[in-house]
Description:
Blueprint (H helix, E strand, L loop, with lengths): L7 E4 L20 E10 L2 E10 L18 E12 L11 E6 L5 E6 L4 E5 L4 E5 L6 E6 L5 E6 L4 E5 L4 E5 L6 E6 L5 E6 L4 E5 L4 E6 L6 E6 L5 E6 L3 E6 L4 E7 L6 E6 L5 E6 L4 E5 L2
Antiparallel strand pairs: 1-2, 2-3, 3-4, 5-6, 6-7, 7-8, 9-10, 10-11, 11-12, 13-14, 14-15, 15-16, 17-18, 18-19, 19-20, 21-22, 22-23
Amino acid sequence: MVLTAAEIAWIGFTGATLANGAATTIANLNAETLVRKSQFAPNNRIEGLVVAMKASTQTKENGLEKEVSVGDYSRLESITRTRESVVIIGHTSEVRSVAYSPDGTNIASGGGDGTVRVWDLSGRALAKSTGHTSVVNSVTYSPDGTNIASGGGDGTVRVWDLSGRELAKLTGHTSEVRSVAYSPNGSLIASGSYDGTIRVWDLKQQKQVTQLSVHTSEVRSIAYSPNGSLIASGSYDGTVRVWDLKQQKQITQLIGDTDDYVNSVAYSPDGTKIVSALSNGKVRVWGLK
């Protein structure tokens, strides 16, 4: 197996050392498994599992891209072809949330550095918003793609245009906002918080119009039904709850395992099912009557 330095990158327990025109190797490994990502053609790469048997190296100089000796290699497994990825660098802390614009031309991200950023698909920065005074936990685009809503550790929900200008600051939560979601018609934003409440905000009036408070612990995720009449919420209390916005009350409570909490919820496109992601490693799909 002969690849050039430009054709291969290794991810694993120990760094690889290789040279242009030289065979690849894995340093100081014996029958250990690494993930290999090799680019063979523009915009595509092969991803596979490599088992290196009796591999060893003797570099002429320290560092990457130096000549190496090559041990014995066994087989390639689990080969799949994927599109070439783009790595976007800009946040100065962990990235906590990402969202595609509805037309698929931009990406929004929210980070532990307290910023909301907008990028084109090549990774070029288009906007940076710095209004939040703590981490940004959630970002989402409005249905028409003209605005971005964010929920932060400062307890606020904020709305931004695509240039990064703040359009609204919505206050009322008494703890971190963990999740935000636009209604399908874009007139409302719902937010779920560590204070255990779900709040619904009218964007035109820039004020809270509904507060739903039944969860006994933090609300980690919320989602509108496709027709906008219901909200599903998932909580650290282990329940998924469904709320009727017109009646402003809970209409369904879904309880799975008693030893887990709910990290995320989503509606099926036809609104007849809810899927939940659980802390115990399970995914549950719930049918709604």
